[in-house]
What we know:
The chain is of the alpha+beta class. Helix content is 21%, strand content 29%.
Amino acid sequence: MGTAVKAESGVSHRNALGKPFTSDLSGQDFWTLMHTGHIPQGLVMGTCVYHIAHRGLGAPSLRRPERRAPQFHPGLSYEARELAMTRMQDEANQLGASGIVGVRLEEKSHQWGSHTIEFLSLGTAVVKTADEVTLPTPTTIISLDN
């Protein structure tokens, strides 16, 4: 679901793969992007689902198990997030992008258990098309107060 747009100038803004770009930017963000000399190349994403195993407290025993909060390795969450963002960046590189805008990073736990997490990174890959940028001048605001 979305909106198809066509440049008033008639210039094609297909991405490096020769396809129309996709994006989840708002109309205002898209307008700002275009007026700062950038063109979207495509919606890029990366994901990583990690199963974080519980760290045991030693060898199993015949004692009744104690109810304790699971102990997680602190670096695994960071590693999963970095892997998701790296995968998003790899997609942007395939499009020849010079950057990624509108990036969202989501962390979710799933029904598979509290020790399974997913990181999803999502953004719009862009390329810079112009060195000089001329932003429109702001219009005068007329006060209605007397």
